[in-house]
Amino acid sequence: MFRLAHVTDLHVRSFAGARLRDFFGKRAVGAINLGLIRRRKYRMDFLEELGKDLRARPHDHLVVSGDLGNVSLLSEWRAARSWIERIGASAENTTVIPGNHDVYVEEVVVSGAFEQIFAAYQRADARLQPNTYPFARLRGEVALVCASSGVPTGDLGAWGRLGEAQLRQVEALLAAPEVRARFRVLVLHHPPVMHRPPENRNLRDRAQLAEVLARVGADLVLHGHDHRDEFAELAGPDGRRIPVVGGGSASYVGPVERCSRYNIYEIDGPRFDLITYAHDSATGAFREFRRRTIS
Ligand SMILES: [Fe+2]
């Protein structure tokens, strides 16, 4: 059995070393939002508690599916990396992709700052150049194909797009023999189906991704973004269904069905158990919230 841990939407706050000139344009709006609203909605102490719980829970690999920061500051990503390091898994056994909050402004996408900070967690077994994304990592019986759906939207929209080049390469990686021989997990930040309107917070080319998956198949699609547990299915080849699982935010404050949480997938052949661990406000600790078998 392979235990895959899935954490998403950490939204780590840290302004250490940020300069005033970092806060023009979209970041200014984001920073005000961060000070006024997000400070109460996303709790760093809950994230610490989650880290402790996960550290004690056996897992073979950790996937972090984006939104490590809020306004794409280096300080946020360094603090997120330090959180990951405290979990104690090796870089080999940890995979990180960006979310829309990690591509908040064009300049960080151009500089590749996120990819530099998380380079050890993106070391690929298969990567189709020249794009950085998608990349594939092969771990035991599991293959992770990791795409980046975030784009610097230039407006306040939180929509995403994979684009033609990534879609083509996702298909090629999912079809590669060394990937196909394993349990294939596609990881992206935005849901590949629309759970929550409006359109300006969703994946624009989700129909094209669905077409790719219908042709090439996958065993599981993981995402974040909506800050709640979500489940859907997409059509695979030969009438097979592909489970699509969205994880809730790792630091969100709310009722237990949405509060700070993470998933573990116990993968055993074509079937797996999905176990969600959530922060329990009564005890301040994490507990098993839900378990379901998917086959
Ligand atoms: Fe998020």
What's a quick, concise take on this entry?
This protein is α/β, with parallel strands linked by helices and 295 residues long. It contains 8 helices and 13 strands.
Report on this structure.
The protein has helices spanning 26-41, 44-55, 74-87, 106-111, 113-117, 163-175, 177-180, 206-216; strands at residues 2-7, 61-65, 94-97, 126-127, 135-139, 142-146, 183-187, 220-223, 230-235, 241-246, 261-268, 271-279, 286-294. It is α/β, with parallel strands linked by helices. Strands 4-5-6-7-8-10-9 form a 7-stranded mixed sheet. A 6-stranded mixed sheet has the order 3-2-1-11-12-13. α6 (163-175) runs parallel beside α8 (206-216). It is globular. The relative contact order is 0.16. The chain binds fe (ii) ion. Fe (ii) ion binds at residues 9, 67, 99, 101, 225, 227.
State the main characteristics:
295 residues; alpha/beta; seven-stranded mixed sheet; 13 strands; binds fe (ii) ion
Strand and helix map with partners:
Layout: E1 2-7, H1 26-41, H2 44-55, E2 61-65, H3 74-87, E3 94-97, H4 106-111, H5 113-117, E4 126-127, E5 135-139, E6 142-146, H6 163-175, H7 177-180, E7 183-187, H8 206-216, E8 220-223, E9 230-235, E10 241-246, E11 261-268, E12 271-279, E13 286-294
Parallel strand pairs: 1-2, 2-3, 6-7, 7-8, 8-10
Antiparallel strand pairs: 1-11, 4-5, 5-6, 9-10, 11-12, 12-13
Helix pairs in contact: 2-3, 6-8
